[in-house]
Amino acid sequence: MIDLKVNGKPVSLDVDADMPLLWALRDEMGLTGTKFGCGLAQCGACTVHLDGEATRSCVLPVSAAAGKNVTTIEGLSPQGEHPLQKAWVAEGVPQCGYCQSGQIMTAASFLKKNPKPSDAQIVQAMNGNLCRCGTYGQICAAVARVAKEGSQA
């Protein structure tokens, strides 16, 4: 049994300790907002927060999350009212949507550490997340909007 906290709620999972956290979240808990992209921690679609840090869940064994706090896109703001989610819409980021949860989770973790980043810092922070639709300009603009507005990310 692996005990952790997911989106603020205690969870006990009876799964293989080596199961990637991504599959525990999606298949065992039904939290499908976190996406499978590459399985190699290179695209960012699977990004969640592990004790507040942006973490690629596709390569992290669920046992490594034991006793820790995991936040998925569903836990960031269940009603979609997080400042980044609002900025995503305002800047016209949504296209196919596949990368968005990972992008938003990466941005949220980044802005907590650096609430007033430069444009270059935003580009650098978001660099490891791939977007199939190529909306990088809008993604960076959305992150900059939240930083400029001083919204609580």
From TrEMBL:
One of its GO terms (molecular function) is 2 iron, 2 sulfur cluster binding. PANTHER family: BLR6218 PROTEIN, OXIDOREDUCTASE WITH IRON-SULFUR SUBUNIT. It comes from the Bacteria. Pfam families: Fer2, Fer2_2. This is (2Fe-2S)-binding protein. The keyword Membrane does not apply. Residues 1-76 form the 2Fe-2S ferredoxin-type domain. Coiled coil: none annotated. Keywords: 2Fe-2S, Iron, Iron-sulfur, Metal-binding, Oxidoreductase. The keyword NAD does not apply.
